[in-house]
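Exercise 7b. Backbone tokens:
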């Protein structure tokens, strides 16, 4: 059976960069000189997609930097060694974690790893301060707030969720007040809104990030997200989805898959015909798409690492059809220029200069 060799959809560049992200960048710059270290949280299923080198240069700027790849319970651990080798140049330490209540892992290692890195690197003008202030950064919906809540609960024994969480992107829209997570050593964390750079790297990155819920589903559209999932799985001959979705065979047509799933799960849309005013029923393909995406996000299709072609780039064979128009490219460049201008006034001064 043959499958598509190219994915024909595109996403308008910059559509995932709402106003609160630009505002969040400006607020981070105002407090960065009072920060001792950075915990960057990212999704282990897409360890390369969405990470911004420009953002890291400006925010991290030589500070102790711990990269936390969260949701490790959804990824094949055999990828970890190769991922570490490719990422270690971009941070000081890498730690894989899970914040799911019954699958928590390695959360107890975060503070010790952070303290070790802090001791290895100079704290600049804050070397005499007893309190350690750490900025928690990353793209949206990778578990930053859940991580902070879990650390506070585990290390201080305090219940509750001082940081709001949700299974979709965009809940944290501003910087939080500092939140203590440890008395000895005295460590405070500052949560930040999830921030994505307008330039995401490869053409497939927006679809992978959307599949993982890193930006809201409506930015790409549920059926297109499912279509990319089919494209990704079929190209790699990973057909577990056939059994999970009760399909007769691997299928490369998203409309057929959505219809079969809607029929199998009895997902019905009930409404009225605007002309005849009669009640109508039809299979709800949007609900079917949501059902499939939820299965993927819960790991039902396997322990998948979506950035495998980036990790092993020499063996990459996937392509995206060049359908981006000149108008979209101009818009893209404009958004990217706005993003970079947020930091322009700070370029000539040391990022560690006392305020």
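Sequence design result:
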């Amino acid at each position: 059976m043959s499958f598509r060799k190219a994915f024909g959809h595109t996403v308008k560049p910059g559509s995932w960069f709402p106003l609160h992200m630009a505002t969040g960048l400006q607020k981070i710059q105002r407090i960065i000189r009072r920060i001792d270290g950075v915990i960057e949280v990212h999704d282990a299923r897409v360890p390369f997609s969405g990470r911004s080198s420009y953002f890291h240069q400006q925010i991290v700027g030589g500070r102790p930097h711990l990269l936390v790849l969260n949701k490790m319970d959804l990824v094949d651990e055999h990828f970890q060694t190769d991922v570490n080798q490719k990422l270690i140049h971009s941070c000081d330490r890498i730690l894989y974690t899970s914040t799911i209540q019954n699958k928590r892992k390695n959360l107890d290692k975060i503070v010790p790893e952070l303290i070790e890195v802090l001791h290895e690197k100079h704290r600049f003008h804050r070397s005499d301060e007893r309190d350690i202030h750490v900025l928690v950064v990353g793209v949206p919906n990778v578990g930053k707030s859940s991580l902070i809540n879990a650390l506070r609960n585990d290390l201080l024994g305090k219940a509750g969720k001082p940081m709001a969480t949700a299974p979709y992107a965009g809940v944290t829209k501003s910087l939080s007040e500092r939140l203590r997570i440890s008395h000895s050593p005295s460590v405070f964390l500052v949560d930040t809104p999830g921030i994505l750079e307008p330039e995401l790297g490869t053409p497939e990155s927006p679809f992978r990030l959307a599949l993982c819920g890193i930006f809201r589903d409506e930015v790409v559209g549920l059926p297109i997200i499912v279509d990319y999932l089919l494209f990704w799985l079929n190209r790699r001959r990973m057909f577990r989805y056939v059994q999970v979705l009760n399909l007769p065979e691997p299928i490369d047509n998203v409309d057929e898959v959505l219809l079969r799933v809607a029929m199998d799960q009895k997902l019905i849309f009930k409404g009225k015909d605007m002309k005849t005013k009669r009640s109508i029923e039809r299979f709800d393909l949007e609900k079917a798409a949501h059902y499939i995406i939820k299965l993927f996000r819960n790991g039902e299709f396997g322990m998948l690492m979506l950035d495998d072609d980036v990790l092993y780039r020499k063996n990459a064979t996937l392509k995206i059809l060049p359908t981006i128009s000149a108008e979209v490219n101009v818009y893209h460049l404009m958004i990217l220029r706005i993003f970079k201008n947020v930091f322009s006034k700070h370029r000539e001064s040391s990022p560690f200069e006392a305020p």
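Instructor comment: The first helix runs from residue 19 to 31. The radius of gyration is 22 Å.
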